Amino acid sequence: MRVLIDMNLTPRWTSYLVAAGHTAIHWSEVGSIRAKDGEICDYARDQKYVLLTNDLDFPRILAHTRDAKPSVILMRGEPLVPEARGRALLSAIEVCQAEIDAGAIVTLDSEDRSRARVLPLR
């Protein structure tokens, strides 16, 4: 899977996801730190990335535009670091792979339970 990591998450997610066999980049590697969420969302969609974030604005953007992509993995709760939540994220990716491929918002809650909502949101 190709994962774009939002600015609000540590770049350490990049090496963690790459070590797990995914292609991953942090937004700071490809875009301005002052970029608007819409620009990041457009980049993820255009470049076929899944967006990893803890920013609720991305599901709002997708609800407003009714777009079916990019898929978003929304991490909630603390801590938001791979050392504490990495295994749960990889499990959520595996469990929700079909939904992510089709276009979905996958939420990983503070207790590491995952839930997928297929896009576009209605």
Keyword list:
alpha/beta; 21% strand; globular; 122 residues; six-stranded mixed beta sheet
Structural notes for this entry:
With 122 residues, the protein is α/β, with parallel strands linked by helices. Helices cover 42% and strands 21% of the residues. It is built from 6 helices and 6 strands, in the order βαβααβαβααββ. The chain has helices at 12-19, 27-30, 37-46, 57-65, 82-95, 97-102, and strands spanning 2-5, 23-26, 50-53, 72-75, 104-108, 114-118. It has a 6-stranded mixed β-sheet, with helices on both faces. A hairpin with a 5-residue loop joins strand 5 and strand 6. The longest helix is centred in the C-terminal third of the chain and has 14 residues, at 82-95. 32% of the residues are buried.
Write the layout of secondary structure elements.
Layout: E1 2-5, H1 12-19, E2 23-26, H2 27-30, H3 37-46, E3 50-53, H4 57-65, E4 72-75, H5 82-95, H6 97-102, E5 104-108, E6 114-118
Parallel strand pairs: 1-2, 1-3, 3-4, 4-5
Antiparallel strand pairs: 5-6
Shape: globular
Strand content: 15-25%
Runs in which pLDDT lies below 50 for 5 or more consecutive residues are none
Structural class: alpha/beta
Assembly type of the shown chains?
A: single chain
Q: How many strands in all?
A: 6
Rg computed from alpha carbons, rounded to a whole number of angstroms: 13 Å
What spatial order of strands do you see in the largest sheet?
A: 2-1-3-4-5-6
Number of helices: 6
Strand and helix order: EHEHHEHEHHEE
- Helix fraction by DSSP (H/I, runs of at least 4): 40-55%
Mean pLDDT: 96
